[in-house]
Amino acid sequence: MEKMSKGTCKILIHNYPTLYPENFKCNIGRGWFGLVNNLSYEISRMVFNSNGNLIVAVDEIKETKGELRFYCTISEKLTLLRHINFKFMSLCAKLDIMVLYNTLQTIRQRFYKTSMEQVSELIYRYCKKSTSICEICGDPGECKLFNMKKKTLCKKCREEEESNAHS
Length: 167
Ligand SMILES: [Zn+2]
Hints:
The mean pLDDT is 92. Helix 2 packs antiparallel against helix 5 (115-129). The chain has a three-stranded mixed beta sheet with strand order 1-2-3, covered by helices on one side. It has a two-stranded antiparallel sheet with strand order 4-5. With 167 residues, the chain is of the alpha+beta class. Helices cover 50% and strands 20% of the residues. The protein has one domain. Zinc ion binds at residues 134, 136-137, 139, 141, 153-154, 156-157.
């Protein structure tokens, strides 16, 4: 299967220089470029709007079991809220009432999410989306077993890969 070329990876570095370091690892098919490009756009917009409070650096993009994996390092400036939150968590851990802490976190997230949580959710959504996009051509696809491995491919690419595998 044709992987995304070095040149295409360079486009990501060029388009989103704050997100992609020169040496980030990239090992996905061409078909997912649009998906990764859209995800990068959304993250970079969040980084831009954070006025320097949020930093995201991509380490690696790859495919595992037919699904996109997007590994990055997210750092967020410690706001007063997060500081209080952290103190509260330490207290709950000490008092052995983490169940209460977790319940309150779930409620809090319904009203307010930290930038870190928002980026993680965004990545999760796009990775799920990848299981319906052909990794080779970008057409709608399905995540199914292929040669004992899970692959997300459209009907046409699956047939082509199958005939290549037999020849
Ligand atoms: Zn295809």
